[in-house]
Amino acid sequence: MSDILCIALNPTVDVSCEAEQVRHTFKVRTHNQRHDPGGGGINVARVVAELGGSAEVIYLSGGATGALLDDCMEKTGLPRHNIVTEAPTRVSYMVREMLTELEYRFVPEGLEINPASVEKVVERVAAFEGDYVVASGSLPQGLPDDTYAKIAESMRDAGTRFVLDTSGAALQSALDAGGLFLIKPSIGELQKLVGRRLDEDDAQNAAMNIVRGGGARYVAVSMGAEGAFLASETGVLRLHARRVNVQSAVGAGDSFVGAMVHSLAAGRDVEAAFRLGMAAGAAAVMTPGTQLCRRKDVEALFDGR
User: Fold this and answer.
1) Helix or strand or coil: residue 52?
2) pLDDT for 110-128, tens place per residue?
3) What positions does the domain Carbohydrate kinase PfkB occupy (predicted)?
4) Of 31, 90, 153, 155, which residue is least crowded by CB atoms under 10 Å?
5) Exposed, middle or buried by CB within 10 Å (0-12, 13-18, 19+), for 191?
6) Measuring CA to CA, which residue among 148, 163, 145, 160 is closest to residue 48?
C-alpha cells in the first residue's frame, strides 16, 4: 500500500520540443521532442517516486490521446487507477525558443467530463488507507466547483490528510468546507482568491486568515524567484529562492508539492518538509521541457536546518 494517493482529474499528455525561432505564419521546425504524462496529480506522484517515496495515482483519460497517456503512465511504473471517460485527454505543448531561451506554453482546457466519473474517484479515495491524499490541478469542464470539497469530505472520517493545489472557485469551495491539511497557491492565485493585489505583508496576512478560519492547517505560498512562505498556527516561515540556472519553469509547483508531501509522509516536521519542497521547486527549473526535478539536484539544494 502506498503512503500517498495522488489525484489528477484533468491530466495531459505533455509534449515538449525546441525550435531555433518561433515565428507566426511560417512553419516552425522543431526537434528534441518528448512526451511525458502530465497534469498536477500525475506530476506530484512522479516527484514522490523520484525522491524514493511511495505514491499511486488516480486519473481520468479517454480517446486516442488517453491511450497515449496510459502508455506514458505505464512507463513510469507508478501504481495507477485509470478511470476511462468519453472525452479525449487533452494535449499540452511547450516550445523552447533557442534564440531567446524563452518558453511558449499552450495548455488547452480540455473537453467536458461527465460528473459521474468523479464518483469512482470518491470511492477509491474513501477506500485508501494511506496517510496523504493529494489533489493537484484544475477541474475539467463539466465538474462542479465543489468537486474537491466532496472528495475531501469522503475521507474526513478516516483521518487522512488532504493536500490541495488548485485555484479559483474550486479552491474557494474547498476552503469554505474547511479542514484541509495543506494548500499551495501561488501569489497570483492567492490574489485571485482574495480579489485584489497583495504585497508580501498582505499575502502573509491573507494566508494566516485562511489558517485562523479553519480552511487549511498550512498554507504554502510560492512567489517564483522571490521564494515562498509557509503560514501555520505558529506564524509565518519565509524562505528565499535558491539561485539556479533556469531551463524551464514547467513542473516547479508540482515538484514543490511532491517533495513536501513525501517529506511529511516520511515523518519529517513541516519546516523540514517546506525546505525540501523549496529545493525541489528550484531543482525542477534546472531541467528542460516537461522534465521534473531530479533527486540528485534536490539533495544538493536541500537546506535541512
Assistant:
1) coil
2) 889 999 889 999 999 988 9
3) 13-294
4) 31
5) middle
6) 163
Residue corresponding to grid cell 505583508: 201
* Beta-bridge mates of residue 4: 55, 132
Cα gap 245→213, rounded to integer Å: 39
Task: Give the pLDDT mean for 133-155.
Answer: 94
Burial of residue 213 (CB within 10 Å: 0-12, 13-18, 19+) is exposed
Q: CATH no. for residue 130?
A: 3.40.1190.20
Mean pLDDT calculated for residue range 55-75 = 96
Calculate the dihedral angle through the C-alpha atoms of 20, 26, 29, 34, rounding to the nearest 10 degrees: 100
Model confidence at 64, pLDDT cuts 50, 70, 90, reads very high
Question: Cα dist. 273→188, 206, 220, 263, 304 in Å?
Answer: 23, 22, 11, 5, 9
Distances (CA, A) of 3 to 168, 183, 184, 212, 288: 28, 19, 20, 28, 29
Query: What ranges make up the beta strands (E) of 67-147?
Result: 80-84, 90-97, 102-106, 132-136
- The pTM score is 0.93
Residue 14 known to be catalytic: no
CB-based contacts of 173, cutoff 8 Å, min separation 6: 145, 146, 148, 149
DSSP state of 51: T
Count of other CB atoms within 10 angstroms of residue 19: 17
Report the number of distinct structural domains present in the chain.
Answer: 1
Q: Please identify which of the residues 36, 146, 254, 297 carries the catalytic annotation.
A: 254
Q: Which residues of 221-258 are buried (b: 16+ CB within 10 A; e: fewer)?
A: bbbeeebbbbbbeeebbebebbeeeebbebbbbbbbbb
Structural domain for 268, as ranges: 4-22+29-301
Confidence of residue 47 (pLDDT cuts 50, 70, 90): very high
